[in-house]
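ok so i was messing around last nite and threw this chain in just to see what happens. nothing serious, just curious
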Amino acid sequence: MMVPLADLLLSPDDMTAVDRDAAASSIDSYGLMERAGQAVAASALRHFPGALRFVVLCGPGNNGGDGYVTARALQQSGASVKLFHLGESMRLKGDAARAFADCPVKGEAIAQYVPRAGDVVIDAIFGAGLSRPVPAEVEAVIVRVGEADIPVIAIDLPSGLDGASGQILGAAFRAKRTVTFMARKPGHILLPGRDLCGELEVFDIGIPARIVRAHADNLIGENTPMQWQAKIPSAGADTHKYKRGHLVVFSGGPNATGAARMSAMAGLKAGAGLVTIASPPEAMAVNAGSLTAIMLHAVDDEASLRAWLADQRLSTFILGPGFGAGEKACQFCLALADRHLVLDADGITSFRDEPQRLFDAFAAGPTRLVLTPHEGEFGRLFPDIAADASLNKVDKARAAAARAHAAIIYKGADSVIAAPDGRALINANAPPWLATAGSGDVLAGIVGGLMTQGAPAFEAAAAGVWLHGLAGQHAGKGLTAEDLVASVKPL
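result:
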């Protein structure tokens, strides 16, 4: 299925290439700017009909050109319009200069803008192409607008945001709405960009789809069922529990068993046919007293684990939730190198001193390893990648996946899921109340439950993150990990 244009993600550099190729194809570039500015004006009038004054802030490039068109269109509609510009307008070039010449609204220096009640700001200063901190005079305006709580409509991207990473470059507007054109940028859905964009509109200004698709990175997108649903096995009429696979979750000691039980239950609810908790002997009684549909098996050390692995039906394992960090965790992981493994929490931390030891064990053959690090754990396994300020979160996750030959879930409110082949998905459906103790244990269980049914590692990871977010939405504010498990639904 072809991804709709509005669902593609183009970096700012990609979009610059699209604009260049559109112009080379004899498409009227000023006509594109005209349609962009008219779309912004229409959005402003539609969503802010009570505005007493539209204040258009124009920058020195084509984003500013869009702003000049917007100001003209708003004035022609009968709205009250005030215009402020950054730098000398006479230095504008190309389409932006033409838009300035066609604009009947006379402007003032941007530093002169003083917000007042009833204003709606149209931010046409920088858009998505900014790569350095905003100038001091722009930062001052951003601060004044924020303090006055003036609504902002951003053209393309709130000024001050990096379109590739969603990171703030010194200061950035917090927009109520953002109007972008043809396709979204990663900065629209990576945090904090996603929050600062407000409601996002993607408007088709008429660039041919073939040109946009030619420059889109088809390996990157938003995490939605369209991206992975075809690879998630569905139960047929003849299915039975053994066809749906056997998932094993390792438990910690008697004082740390709850995390494994939550992972195990999440795996069962995600569709695993059978789920067993592998428990140290001293925790058997504690686990047995809290299990019903989940089975229990004693595993004391590496030798007992390897003996149990003679049963080839044990296909997928989860290690980390409540297990404890240390050499025992490392030994267990390496014993599972020919199986599918979701490595979480303590399991990840156990390899912080020798991460290559883990990567080498899973280096051959299809991807069998899923790693679920949060920010701190990511830095322990991939310290050089984590420290590279030139990389955004997607770049970091992709580099880590390639190094580890693993599917990476780089966790956070904007979790990024990456595969060794360069595919990456940004998740955007997770509600903020998922940030609670035990939430990650549930995620590991969902991913493991999907893998044990035969889903490939990357697709299981992406589907697991999305289903985890959906469960959080259903459970609602104030959820506990137990509530979250109860809200897990299979596809």
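not much to say yet. The chain has two domains: 5-218, 225-487.
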